[in-house]
Every structure is written in C-alpha cells, then in structure tokens.
Amino acid sequence: MSTELQVTVFRFAKEEYALPITKVKSIIKLLPITKMPNAPLFMEGIINLRGEIIPIVDLRPRFNLSIQPATDESRIIIVDINQQMAGIIVDCVDEVIRAPMDDIDLPPAAARLDTTYITGICKYNLRLITLLDIDKVLTQDEVKDLKKVDG
After folding, report:
1. What are 90-121's pLDDT values in tens digits?
2. Using the 8-state DSSP alphabet, how is residue 3 labeled?
3. In this structure, which long-range contacts are made by residues 120-124, counting pairs with CB atoms below 8 Å and at least 24 apart in sequence?
4. Model-level pTM?
C-alpha cells in the first residue's frame, strides 16, 4: 500500500480541492465552449479537443459556489468520471503534490455536511485541501447524460 497520494490541486473561488493524478487526463487552457440546446443544468457545453467531443461540467453549483467569469488562469481539467471523459472548469490549477497518507483525514462528520464526494481533507504546508471523489460528484444519471453527448 502506498504511503502517499499524488494529487492535482486546483481552486474554485479561494478554496483548494484536489483529484488523484490517476483521474486527471490533461489540463488545458479554456477553449470556446459550445452550448447545447436542452443540455442538463450541470453541463456547460462541449469542446472539440484534438478532434474529440468532450462534455464540459461546471462543479460550482454542486459545491454551492457562485458562477465566476473566466480569467487567464482558468483551466479545464480533463478527467475520467466513471469511464467517461469530461472536462471540469476550475479557476486555476496550482500544483501536483505528493501528500503523505498520514496527513489525510476523513471529512468532518457534521449533521448537515454532505461529504458524498469528499474522500478526505489533506493537511499540506499549513493548508487544508479537500480531496474529491470525482466518480461521485455526478449521479449515475448525469454520467449517462454525458455519455449521450460523447456518442
């Protein structure tokens, strides 16, 4: 068993989140996003990435964060969500770190805190980074909707 977890750290608003590096396929600058008629609310649209149509998701509503305009630091992280390629829009990508497993705690247990898609909290250089389970951020029906877009 590994004694550390390698993760990609990114930001929404001023909060830091991370995904296991094994789920991240690439990180790209923001491309023009084509809106799709009657698309599910969680889906921003689609992009053409090297000839492949990739659905783009904005996780801000899922995290109860307000929608922000894109900046020069905004990125799209191409991820594997339950064997489905999708892009997530983030404010910026900070770094890739190796987090010692001893520095990762379970999410706090609070009565009204939904930790469905949080696998842990990483204590790293006096920072707290929320570790996400990208496979649980979208429901099974939402992943099926993404697959319909991809063909």
Report:
1. 999 999 999 999 999 988 776 556 678 899 99
2. S
3. 122/5, 122/7, 122/18, 124/97, 124/99
4. 0.89
